[in-house]
Amino acid sequence: MKKFEKLTSAIVPLNIENIDTDQIIPARFLKATTREGFGENLFRDWRYNGDNTLKADFVLNNPAFKGRILVAGKNFGCGSSREHAAWAIQDAGFDVVISSFFADIFKGNALNNGLLPIQVSDEFLAEIFSTVGQDHTAQLDVDLEAQTVTNVVTGSKTDFEINPYKKSCLINGYDDIDFILNQKQLVVEFEQNR
Amino acid sequence: MSKTLVEKIWDAHVVKSEVGFPDILYIDTHLIHEVTSPQAFDGLRKRGLPVFRPQQTVATADHNVPTLNQLQPIKEELSRYQVDMLTKNCAEFGIELYGLGHPFQGIVHVIGPELGITLPGKTMVCGDSHTSTHGAFGAIAFGIGTSQVEQVFATQCLLQQKPKTMKIEVNGELGQGVTAKDIILYIIAKISAAGGTGYFIEYAGSTIEALSMEARMTICNMSIEMGARGGLIAPDQITFDYIKGREFAPAGEEWDKSLAYWKTLYSDADAKFDSVLTFDAADISPMITYGTNPGMGMGIAEHIPSTASQVSSEQASFQKALDYMGIEQDTELVGKPIDYVFIGSCTNSRMEDLREVAEFVKGRQKAENVTVWIVPGSKQIEQQAIAEGLDKIFEAAGFQLREPGCSACLGMNEDKIPAGKYCVSTSNRNFEGRQGPDSRTFLASPLTAAAAAITGRVTDVRTLLNESEHA
């Protein structure tokens, strides 16, 4: 799994609430059997017209916004459990997603792929949207070890929560399978004692 | 110490619990389908690992499959490849597959219960968020991502944080035309599409206890639509009667032993939930959604809320949803012309749903402007419907009974709602483009969907039910 420690980057703002995984990657693009290439269809129906031309007013199509941090409205990633949503965001070049609330399954899927979901307060989120609205190149500074996000323009800084185990997985780039495989004897014993 | 039902089942499956780490939770049954499994099988190959407990894994093809001429090769190349890949992977890793042409094939959450694979007290997972359906039997069942599918393949376990618990009680008798689907759409409208996030929900109360197993599955199915990983209902005599005699259900001595255990599966009277909500069944009317998430629902006779009545930070998203749907705030939906009716999906494609619709449409005709698809949840249901003559009733009404699969719930196969068209759907999600690019979905019960099919408009089913009583 991809490692993550620190990142200072410009951001791509998507100020919409309840973005479901069908918007992130529509079902008709889930037919691939590998993990790569989903970025092309990230937010497909918001990004492209029916004739496959780009929708000029969508933020991902605006060259003024570039960055490795996606910032979105609350309840991001609700709906379907498709991990393709996390793969698509990562494949499109993002390392961090910030929102004021995440759906459970999406959050877990992101963490299992080294894509860092950061939950911040409604106020902190509103400040990010306001900052980037004024300055499209505004940057955020993310420090996983310290569990902080800093709005580089305003200097506002906030802490964020992350499960300590998941944090060490991200920093070291290892995953849950390695963790359980190392304790497989316990699983066998559990089965025998049932 | 007193425990909730979730805690009882969870604790019985913890392989290891360590401070600072998620629990290692043992998984009894792993259900898989063609869309979320191929990358997990690939992961195993890369690690050089087998499936640890293939006999505890069951596969079916449902998301991509056509619902006409299922025994012909799948026309769409990528769909065909994905379904073929499932067949190859199951053969290579020793997993039982109920694929196309098999008498047990169907939607993964329909066949589990139907075959007696879903049982009280089990832990069950699937790379599909509607795995919560199986909770209707008093099981801990939840959807997982593909990395976790690989994890369960490799270890038969998941690293999982113990969830918080919520009890939702519904008490009293349901009114005319009000079904399980209306109960769950009502609850989601009340607590929002995120209101259950972080929780496992136990549904209880006299209304829930009076429901059949199929109705209970409809309720648990949509737990994820309020953000909850799982929802469950304590097993009772209705549960035991449903399970007995099914293909893979325990029998003989095993049955007695299982039953004795199942009867211990309830929340203790003084068990503490992290949250408790209570609703009165009398307040629930036939429901319909008007927006682009399942929390945007209302009683069918009500008016669409005004944008100004929403919290200020949510007004823009709310208005965006109404614009997408092509509807106005403060207006009513009843009378709005529709184009399609879809009766199917893991929410409402079981025998009881089909029988209810057949009884309602018998002697009636669909409106000319409407296309109606009825997609049964499994091959067994399709065959049963034909045996009961429901296919004839549907045919006479102008409804098409098709072959089983997920179909227009998510439009991965050919069954898509065209851009701009309206569909009254018994499925579970009204997200933008869910049923096809730019399609517009009104979620409702099978009865409400059938009523719309007859009139060609969004209809309060109670007006038609009253007509037939007076006829």
From TrEMBL, chain A:
Pathway: Amino-acid biosynthesis; L-leucine biosynthesis; L-leucine from 3-methyl-2-oxobutanoate: step 2/4. Keywords: Amino-acid biosynthesis, Branched-chain amino acid biosynthesis, Leucine biosynthesis, Lyase. Catalyzes the isomerization between 2-isopropylmalate and 3-isopropylmalate, via the formation of 2-isopropylmaleate. It comes from the Bacteria. The keyword Lyase applies. One of its GO terms (cellular component) is 3-isopropylmalate dehydratase complex. Its EC number is 4.2.1.33. Belongs to the LeuD family. LeuD type 1 subfamily. Heterodimer of LeuC and LeuD. One of its GO terms (biological process) is L-leucine biosynthetic process. GO terms for molecular function: 3-isopropylmalate dehydratase activity. This is 3-isopropylmalate dehydratase small subunit.
From TrEMBL, chain B:
PROSITE patterns: ACONITASE_1 (PS00450), ACONITASE_2 (PS01244). One of its GO terms (molecular function) is metal ion binding. It catalyses: (2R,3S)-3-isopropylmalate = (2S)-2-isopropylmalate. Keywords: 4Fe-4S, Amino-acid biosynthesis, Branched-chain amino acid biosynthesis, Iron, Iron-sulfur, Leucine biosynthesis, Lyase, Metal-binding. Its EC number is 4.2.1.33. [4Fe-4S] cluster binds at residues 346, 406, 409. Heterodimer of LeuC and LeuD. PANTHER family: 3-ISOPROPYLMALATE DEHYDRATASE, HOMOACONITASE, MITOCHONDRIAL-RELATED. This is 3-isopropylmalate dehydratase large subunit. It comes from Pedobacter steynii.
